[in-house]
């Protein structure tokens, strides 16, 4: 019943975020801070990341399409930012394939697109908890080599509350504007 309520709340929130004449943010009932130990034994807390805006994205390094396309879109969206604006956000890539993606591989993968980003790989149990916390969709395909997964970018504010979900079909301007508005403390 609680999961059903969470899904209903998410759908209502998505509807409210996408409605209206302006660019709106709302506090979504999913996501937020992560406090866990990664596969390298390092403590991870989103609260300890100093940038006021986090763009959290779930994927895996063997992903043939959505992951590289989304990371390329984030890169394109942030290239036009001023040097000061570039210090106001951090991209965090969380692997949904902890068996194949080591912390080093995940970091190297995401930094190919965005040199200042963070790549994270957790144990399977921790990964599953984080996926549930973010209400992300993750399912291995029948061949066991590919993983179907949601492609949202979760936009977290300085308090590590999820304020917006950016869809893979949204323009790069949505990413740019989210960073600018949330980092400027105008919300």
From TrEMBL:
InterPro entries in the cross-refs: SCO1/SenC, Thioredoxin-like_sf, Thioredoxin_domain
Gene3D superfamilies: Glutaredoxin
Keywords carried by this UniProt record: Copper, Disulfide bond, Metal-binding
Any one Pfam family match given in the protein's UniProt record, by short name: SCO1-SenC
GO molecular function, a single term: metal ion binding
Transmembrane keyword on record: no
Record-annotated membrane-spanning stretches: none
Binding site for Cu cation: 63, 67, 149
Keyword Disulfide bond applies: yes
Family: Belongs to the SCO1/2 family.
Protein known as: SCO family protein
Source lineage: Bacteria, Pseudomonadati, Spirochaetota, Spirochaetia, Leptospirales
């Amino acid at each position: 019943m609680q999961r059903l309520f969470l899904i209903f709340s998410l759908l209502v929130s998505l509807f409210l975020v996408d409605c209206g004449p302006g660019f709106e943010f709302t506090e979504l009932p999913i996501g937020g801070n992560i406090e866990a130990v990664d596969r390298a034994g390092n403590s991870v807390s989103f609260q300890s990341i100093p940038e006021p805006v986090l763009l959290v994205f779930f994927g895996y390094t063997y992903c043939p399409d959505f992951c590289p396309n989304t990371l390329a879109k984030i890169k394109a969206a942030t290239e036009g930012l001023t040097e000061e604006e570039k210090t106001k956000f951090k991209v965090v890539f969380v692997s949904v394939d902890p068996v194949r993606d080591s912390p080093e591989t995940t970091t190297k993968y995401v930094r190919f697109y965005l040199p200042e980003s963070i790549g994270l790989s957790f144990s399977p149990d921790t990964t599953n908890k984080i996926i549930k916390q973010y209400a992300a969709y993750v399912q291995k395909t029948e061949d066991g080599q590919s993983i179907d997964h949601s492609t949202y970018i979760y936009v977290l504010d300085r308090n590590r509350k999820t304020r917006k979900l950016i869809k893979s079909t949204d323009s790069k301007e949505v990413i740019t504007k989210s960073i600018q508005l949330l980092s400027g403390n105008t919300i």
